[in-house]
Amino acid sequence: MEAENHSLHAELQEIVEETDELSEFLFEIRSRHHAASRFPMLIPALLNYIPLQVYEQWMKTPLDDIEAWVVQTKDSLKSES
Fold first, then answer.
1. Model pLDDT, residue 81
2. Cα–Cα distance between 47 and 58 in angstroms, integer?
3. CB under 8 Å to 55, separation ≥6 — which residues?
4. How many domains does the chain have?
5. What does 24-57 look like in DSSP terms, one character per residue?
6. What Cα–Cα distance (Å) separates residue 55 from each residue in 3, 43, 63, 74?
7. If we measure between CA atoms, which residue out of 76, 69, 78 comes closest to residue 32?
8. 31 and 8 in a common domain
9. How far apart are CA 69 and CA 76, in angstroms?
10. How far apart are CA 15 and CA 45, in angstroms?
């Protein structure tokens, strides 16, 4: 009985950890979707503050590189707080 209890407890802990990972993954997906949906609205405002060459280079940057930069920046800001 005690062995079964221990086994069930370990299984429950594993499910909780998987649920936490899935929650974090879902949060990342929602964050990316939110950022991607707002990006086109930000372009006109950004053009008032950045040189055209910077904007053109940014538009040539692959989306995967931009997403990686966003995640890296977010993680570094997390570690600072």
1. 65
2. 12
3. 43, 46, 47
4. 2
5. HHHHHHHHHHHHHHHHHHHHHHHHTTS-HHHHHH
6. 62, 9, 14, 22
7. 69
8. yes
9. 10
10. 45
Identify the domain containing residue 72 by its residue range: 50-81
Q: Domain check: are 32 and 54 in the same one? A: no
Structure tokens at 68: 């990686």
Instruction: pLDDT tens for the chain, 81 residues: list them.
Output: 888 888 888 999 999 999 999 999 889 888 888 877 777 777 777 777 778 888 788 889 998 888 888 888 888 888 776
Token readout for 22 is: 């899935």
